[in-house]
Structure formats: C-alpha cells, structure tokens
Predict the structure.
Amino acid sequence: MPQDFPASVLSPQTWPLSLEFLPRATYLVGGNVRDALLGRRAEYLDLDFVLPEGAVKTAKAIANYYRAGFVLLDAERQIARVVFEKATADFAQQVGDSLEEDLWRRDFTVNAIAYSPHTQALIDPLQGYLDLQQQLIRMIAPENLKEDPLRLLRAYRQAAQLGFTLEPNTRQMIQQLSGLLQFIAAERVQAELSYLLSTPKGTPFLQMAWHDGLLTSWLPHTTVEALTQVGQIDQAAIALAQTWSPFGLELSSWLRDQHKISGTGRSWLKIAKLTTLVSSDLNRAEQELWRLKYSRAEVQAVLSVIKFLPHVQPSVLPTLSLGDQYTLFRGIGTAFPALAVLAVAQGISLETIAPFIQRFLTPDDPVAHPTPPLTGRDLMDAFQLSPSPRIGQLLEVLQLARAENKIHSREEALEFAKTLITGD
C-alpha cells in the first residue's frame, strides 16, 4: 500500500456532494479509487459508494437536496444512482457481512480497493495496489467470473483501457469459461466490444479476446484475416488523418449520440472495423448486428459500407464516371469516411482515393454534396405543374445533370427541365 498516497486526489472537495451526507461506514470503491492510485483523472466523475445499510435512502436524500436525478437501479440489491451535471454517484448496499467480504466478490484485484472518505484510509485485502504497480489484470476467483460472465470480456477492455496485461492464470481461466459469454445480455456485450473497437489500444485485446474464444458466438464470421484488417484500419486512419486532418476528425465523429457508452462514442472508424467482423452477406450481417442490439443507424451504416465496398476497389474506383461517383456518394451518404478508411486498409492508395476525399471535404461539391439547381416551387411555377412525386424525380435528374457538368446555371437548369418535361 502506498505510504505517501496523496489523499487529495480522492478528496470529497472534488465531489458534487458533501461528505456529511455519507454515513461513517461509507466507502468509495471501484474504478475511481483505482484511477486515483494510477494518477488518472477524468473530467466526468464516476463515483461508486458501498454502504452497510440504507444505500437507496442515502441516494434519495442526496438527490433531493441537490435536485439531482435519481435512478433506482436494483431495488432488491439496494442499488441507486444520483446523476449530477458533471458526475454520477452510485450507491450500493454492501454485499456480505463486511466490507472485506464485499471486496472479495468483485471482478479483479485492481478494482477491489476501497477508500474511506472519513478517515482517508485505503482498504486493500487482495493486494490490488501491487497489481496496479505491476500493471496486471488479475481475477479474484473463478467463481466471481462465473457469477457474471461479462467480466470475462471486461478483462480485455480494462487491460486495453489501462495499458495493462492479463495475468497468465486469469487468461487461462477466461479461456476455460469463454463459452459462458453467450448467455450474457447483448447490450452488455456490445458495450464492452464498443470500447475495443473505438480505439487503437483496443485492437490487440480484441484480437486476443477472439483468439481466446470469447467472440465465437457473437461474431461467428470473424476470421484471423478480419482481425488483421482491424489493425490495418487503425494504420489507414493514421495515414488519412496525417494527409487530411479534417478527414481524421470525420473518422472519429458520428451523426449524433457522441458519448453513448462509458465515455466512448460511436464513430465511423468503429463502423469500418465492425464491417470487417461481420459476414459480407448483407442478410447475415444484419442478423448479427441486430442480435448485438446495435442501433438502426449503426446497422444501416455497416450495411451501406458492405454494399458499396466493391465500388472502391483499386481496379474500379479510378474508372468511375461523374455519374457513377454521384451514385456512390448518394448511396453511401455520411458513412463515406468508414468506406474510405476500409478501402485504404484493403490496399487502395491515398493518391487514388484523394479526389474522392477532396470532394467529401468540400461542402458545396456538386458530386459529393449535391443540391438541386432549382426548387420544387421553381418547377411548378415555371411549367404549371401540380405537386406530385414527379417533382422529386425531376429534381433528382437535375442534381445528376449538375454533377455531370451538363448544367451550370439556373437558366440552363430550366432549359434542361423543359426538355425533360416536354419529352414525357
């Protein structure tokens, strides 16, 4: 145990609640204690408290006093959450007759260190601090992994997150128990998987988890080649970002819901990686993604990349006409960054894909971001047309004509529209 541990890193002064609300026997546990010992700080506080009794009552009192959000997570096990603007505090009833018994039931030794905010004492019956120093993820007991098999996959996620390695006996036990992960709720599996897909640090641990049999039931079409390609996607993303920094930002972005799970966001980079792990058959890929409870937007993004990947092969992409390029951009839409990084990972050169990236990064490019040269009202007024689906069809043809450099002005657009209408 550190003799010179700076208690200030866990000082209640950094919390959104006063220490006076917490009973004397309250302990801070879990990731916040672990990260403090590692010198890791987060802008958003995630506090986990263990109380011998009255956990929900304490949480309610705090939520009411601070007018914060209150969520009853588990009435039977007495677990509640208080949501502040820049922090979340979970309050759980102690499991067992003592704090030590509670800590013995946790997943890994590095997460089984408790801190008393009242006495500033650290409780570490499992020598978790020693494993922190040695940068090891070590199980507490096989029974703890069996109790919640999600912990099997969480070991790899936390190792990636912390830059740690799996203790050999722990990894061997995970391999033996790997089949249990298939019985865990898909949403929970996806949450752990999302972190491994969202950062290059996760790639070697994703590969390790697959090798150890954890992903067999959830991603049955994943191969060694696919996992190798995940690493190549990381390298392709670096090359693209170094060449076009705005495109690097696009790869790490998403339309909405930027911080979905555990501080990790959906990103086009993750979509590209996910595409390599599922079947190349659209129907099978869709089934795998729905089973993992991915959102409709994520499923559609992956399916779009699968569908248009043949169009960005080295032998095809340079031959695309303006009309073909228009069709490609219209079809792939906002998922183009995922398609591009996967294409580069599969061998297409930066020189070959450069014109397409330049188009994508140019907001008013008529091929990548087409806008009709006329409005529906323009067409109805100029040609005495009534509202109908035909108006939308005409606008689509005009957009394509503009992309193909057949029209350059409003007057040319009206003349082109006239030939379309009179030719009907």
Notes: The chain has 20 helices and nine strands.
